[in-house]
Amino acid sequence: MTDSNRDMLRRQMLEVVENQLRDNSPPETRATLDRLIAEGHSSAEAKRLIACVVVAEMFQVMKERRPYDQDRFVAGLRGLPDLPE
Questions:
Q1: pLDDT recorded at residue 36
Q2: pTM (2 decimals)?
């Protein structure tokens, strides 16, 4: 993957996070952002961590060829700042 593609993917995943925050869907995204900031992470770092969970869930959807699993996604959010595998 080129640096340009990596940057584009990063921007798109952060846009997904921003959309989740704007729409409050799922509400656990906002709660996770607030929790991470309260724990001392910057807003930008907290959003980057949340985006990592978005990517992990997308990977699982593609790998397993099954629909999005909100429970798995929320569990990933709750586990932050430890990243999902």
A1: 98
A2: 0.92
